């Protein structure tokens, strides 16, 4: 990280770097409640250009953006640009991705809703073609 | 609000002032998801000295502190001091209060966990004696 990034705007801890094929670049995560709890809450920090693959949640998810600039997109819909203070309610089973813009770090808290209703299912990566047209 | 307060540290919208006998002073709330949703999320901003009355939640609650300085206390336990980045997991039916310190605004997001398991039940105010000993 360098002095020009937006990671200084984080409110919650950065946590540990996540090594996963479901992210296109470097990403850090800190669970804020237990992953086993009835309401798992965590903080995710994406480096510029990093986004997760398309995926679904059995019970849905809420995103609370605390810093940087990024996107949320549902399958078949235009991408929505996000910045600090924005909130996304992701319906159960909605195929979607989220992540940073090309030129900014991006930080959000996630709340996993009713995780007992089903797991997170990871699908294909967001194509470079689909990502690169975003402004 | 004046230039010395901590409310500038808020990430999420202030919302509307809440007029309720369950708060000892001025407080503002903005729902970030629908109050009817399976996972109600909202932002609460307390003026200095303002706290809520003792209360319980049927399904529990998570607090995510985004600004200022305040407290969380469970019945029979010492108060815990809170600042930005702190997280509180409130068990179902635990009698508790939260609010600002005497000299600072206090801002937190709340996540109501499993609200279908029971309502929020409001009890007696936190006494001035109990509050005034806090540092």
What are the defining features of this structure?
homodimer; 135 residues; mainly beta; eight-stranded antiparallel sheet; two-stranded antiparallel sheet; 1 helix; 10 strands; disordered N terminus
What topology emerges from the helices and strands here?
The structure is a homodimer of 135-residue chains.
Chain A: E1 16-17, E2 27-31, E3 41-46, E4 55-57, E5 61-74, E6 80-83, E7 87-90, E8 96-100, E9 106-112, E10 120-122, H1 128-132
Antiparallel strand pairs in A: 1-2, 2-3, 3-9, 4-10, 5-6, 5-7, 5-8, 5-9
Structure description:
2 copies of one chain form a homodimer. With 135 residues, chain A is mostly beta strands. Chain A is 4% helix and 39% strand. The first copy, chain A, has 1 helix and 10 strands. Chain A has one helix spanning 128-132, and strands spanning 16-17, 27-31, 41-46, 55-57, 61-74, 80-83, 87-90, 96-100, 106-112, 120-122. In chain A, strands 1, 2, 3, 5, 6, 7, 8 and 9 form an 8-stranded antiparallel sheet that branches. In chain A, strands 4-10 form a two-stranded antiparallel ribbon. Chain A is globular. The relative contact order of chain A is 0.26. Mean pLDDT of chain A is 92; it is low at 1-8. The A-B interface holds A 11-13, 32-33, 37-39, 41, 59-60, 62, 64, 66-67, 84-85, 87, 89, 109, 111, 113-114 and B 11-13, 32-33, 37-39, 41, 59-60, 62, 64, 66-67, 84-85, 87, 89, 109, 111, 113-114.
């Amino acid at each position: 990280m360098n002095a020009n990034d937006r990671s200084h705007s984080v409110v919650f801890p950065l946590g540990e770097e996540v090594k996963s094929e479901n992210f296109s670049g470097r990403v850090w995560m800190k669970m804020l409640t237990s992953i086993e709890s009835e309401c798992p809450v965590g903080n995710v920090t994406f480096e510029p250009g990093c986004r997760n693959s398309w995926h679904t949640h059995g019970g849905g998810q809420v995103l609370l953006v605390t810093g940087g600039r990024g996107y949320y997109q549902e399958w078949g819909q235009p991408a929505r640009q996000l910045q600090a203070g924005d909130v996304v309610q992701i319906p159960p089973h909605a195929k979607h991705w989220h992540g940073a813009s090309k030129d900014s770090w991006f930080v959000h808290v996630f709340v996993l809703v009713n995780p007992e209703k089903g797991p997170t299912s990871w699908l294909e990566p967001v194509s470079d073609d689909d990502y690169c047209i975003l402004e």
